[in-house]
Write a structure and sequence with these properties.
With 468 residues, the chain is mainly beta. Helix content is 6%, strand content 51%. The protein has three helices and 22 strands. The strands form two sheets. The protein has an 18-stranded antiparallel beta barrel. Strand 5 (102-114) and strand 6 form a beta hairpin.
Length: 468
C-alpha cells in the first residue's frame, strides 16, 4: 500500500496513513453431489476495508491496521453428508458463520519496530504482524526475482492466507539480522484465527510456531542465485478431532519439525531470461499418538522472451508431496502444510500441497504495461492412493470442531483432476486495479468416485481494489 504523510514531528519522525478497499464477487460451481436440492452452484460477495496508521523513525516505529469485512449471500444449503462435505469455499465460510451474511471488525496488525538495535543490520518487531515464509529478503529492483519469490516460493508453509476474506496474522516476536551477503531471521509466534473465520481478532494460543531461516542473498556469493535454508517448529495442542487419517488425535499433539531449502537462479541471454528454482522439505515429529515422517519437493523452470511482442514467459514444473501408504500402521506419512496461503499454488483451491502430485505449465503475457494475463494447466493426482484427497489452508479456529483441513477418501484411485486457470489483471493507476479469474476442473477418478453426478467444477471471480 502507498502511504499519505499526515504530518512530520521532526526531520526523522513522521506519521502517515494508508488504506485499501477490496470488493470481490465469487461464483462457484462445485462438483455436483448425488443428493438433489443442495446448492452446489452459487455466488457470494464481500468487501474488505483496511486503514493503517504508521509512525516512522530511524530507531522506533509503530504500525496499527484495522480491518472491516462484510459478506453477503453465503450458501445456506451447500454441505452434503460425508464424504462429499462442504461444496466449495462459500460453504466453508457458511460452516464458520452459520449465517448467509457475516461481518467483522478487528485490529489486524499492531506492532512496534526497532530497526536499529545494538548493531547495524539487527532489527526486532513485536506485536501482531504479517509473515510469509520465503519473503525474508525482498529485491525491489529485480522484478523477475521478486515475482518468483512471491508467486512460486513464499507462503508454502506459513502465510497470511490473504486471498480469503478475513486473512490471518501472527502474534509474537521476530528478529532479523540483514547483512550485505546474508540474512538471518527468527520468530516465535501464535497464529490468529481467520481465513474463513470472522473472529480473526482471536489468537490461537494452542498453536506454537517457531522458525529460523538463513538466506544467502541473490547474486552476492553465487552469480544470479539465491539460496535459503529454513527450520519450522509447529505444535498444535487444540485437541480438535482430526479426520486426517492414522490415529487421528486420540491422544497427544501435532508436533512437527520441518527442515528445508530453496534455490533460485536466473540467467540472461540475448533473447530473454531463463529461470530455475528448487524447493524441498523434510518433516519429522508426532501426529497424535504416532510418529510423523513426510517430505515435499518441487522443481520449476522457465524462459521469458524479452525481445518479442507481449514478452511471453513460459514456465513448467513438477511438485510432489508424500502421502500415507497405510492408514493403520501406526505411522503418519502425509506431508503437513501447517499455515500456508494455499491458493498461491492452487488457484481453484479444491486441493493443496498435501499428498499431491502436480505437473504443470504456465504462460504469462503482458499485452500492455497495465494488462497482464496468466494461464496455468495442471495435471493433478494423489501421490499415494491409500491416503486421502486434502484441501484447506490451515487452522482457522482455536477451539470447536473445525480442524482446518478436509480429507476425502480416494477410493483407491490416484487421478484427481486436470485444471485450467486463466487470470487477467489490469492496473488502472497506482490507486485502482482489477483482477479476474476463471478456473475449470475436469474431474478424474478420485472425483468421479465421490461426485457421481458431475465431477467437473468451475470457479470465477471479479475483484476491484482501490488503495492509497
Amino acid at each position: 500500500m502507498a502511504e499519505i504523510k499526515l504530518f512530520t514531528l521532526d526531520k526523522n519522525t513522521s506519521i502517515s496513513a494508508s488504506g485499501e478497499i477490496t470488493a470481490r464477487n465469487t461464483y462457484e460451481n462445485w462438483f455436483e453431489p448425488a443428493l438433489p436440492n443442495l446448492e452446489h452452484s452459487y455466488d457470494y460477495f464481500f468487501t474488505r476495508s483496511r486503514l493503517a496508521i504508521a509512525l516512522r523513525n530511524p530507531y522506533i516505529g509503530a504500525y496499527v491496521q484495522a480491518q472491516h469485512v462484510y459478506m453477503w449471500n453465503l450458501p445456506e444449503n451447500s454441505i452434503a453428508p460425508s464424504p462429499q462435505g462442504p461444496m466449495g469455499s462459500g460453504a466453508i465460510y457458511y460452516m464458520h458463520a452459520r449465517s448467509d451474511t457475516d461481518h467483522s471488525l478487528i485490529i489486524r496488525q499492531a506492532y512496534l519496530d526497532f530497526p536499529k538495535l545494538f548493531l547495524k543490520g539487527l532489527s526486532v518487531r513485536i506485536g501482531r504482524f504479517d509473515y510469509a515464509d520465503g519473503q525474508e529478503v525482498i529485491y525491489k529492483k529485480n522484478a523477475k526475482v521478486t515475482w518468483l519469490k512471491n508467486a512460486r516460493l513464499s507462503d508454502r508453509m506459513i502465510g497470511a492466507f490473504d486471498w480469503s476474506a478475513y486473512n490471518r496474522s501472527f502474534d509474537g516476536l521476530q528478529a532479523a539480522y540483514d547483512g550485505k551477503v546474508f540474512n538471518l531471521f527468527a520468530s516465535v509466534t501464535h497464529p490468529t484465527q481467520g481465513g474463513f473465520e470472522n473472529n480473526a481478532q482471536k489468537t490461537i494460543s494452542a498453536i506454537d510456531l517457531g522458525n529460523i531461516t538463513g538466506t544467502m542473498k541473490y547474486g552476492e556469493l553465487l552469480k544470479n542465485t539465491e539460496v535459503r535454508a529454513f527450520y519450522y517448529y509447529y505444535n498444535d495442542h487444540r485437541n480438535i478431532p482430526s479426520i486426517l487419517g492414522e490415529s487421528g488425535l486420540k491422544e497427544g499433539n501435532i508436533r512437527i519439525n520441518t527442515f528445508g531449502t530453496h534455490w533460485l537462479h536466473t540467467e540472461n541471454i540475448k533473447s530473454g531470461v531463463f529461470d530455475v528454482l528448487f524447493w524441498g522439505a523434510l518433516q519429522e515429529g508426532e501426529w497424535g499418538a504416532v510418529d510423523h515422517r513426510a517430505w515435499a519437493a518441487t522443481i520449476e523452470g522457465g524462459f521469458q522472451f524479452t525481445n518479442v511482442l507481449f514478452k511471453p514467459w513460459i514456465r513448467g514444473g513438477y511438485f510432489a508431496s508424500s502421502g500415507d501408504s497405510n492408514l493403520n500402521d501406526g505411522k503418519h506419512g502425509t506431508f503437513y502444510q501447517m499455515l500456508p496461503t494455499a491458493r498461491k499454488y492452487a488457484f481453484f483451491p479444491f486441493y493443496n500441497l498435501m499428498n499431491n502430485e502436480d505437473l504443470f505449465v504456465q504462460a504469462i503475457v503482458k499485452p500492455t504495461e497495465a494488462l497482464s494475463i496468466r494461464a496455468d494447466l495442471h495435471s493433478l493426482s494423489l501421490q499415494n492412493k491409500q491416503d486421502l484427497w486434502y484441501m484447506g489452508a490451515g487452522p482457522t479456529q482455536g477451539s470447536g470442531s473445525i480442524f482446518g483441513y478436509l480429507g476425502r477418501p480416494s477410493n483407491n484411485h490416484d487421478g484427481l483432476a486436470t485444471v485450467l486457470d486463466i487470470s487477467p489483471g489490469y492496473t488502472f493507476s497506482k490507486y485502482l486495479s482489477a483482477n479476474l479469474y476463471y478456473g475449470h476442473a475436469f474431474g478424474k477418478d478420485v472425483l468421479k468416485s465421490i461426485y457421481k453426478s458431475n465431477s467437473n467444477g468451475d470457479l470465477f471471480y471479479v475483484e476491484l481494489k482501490t488503495q492509497f
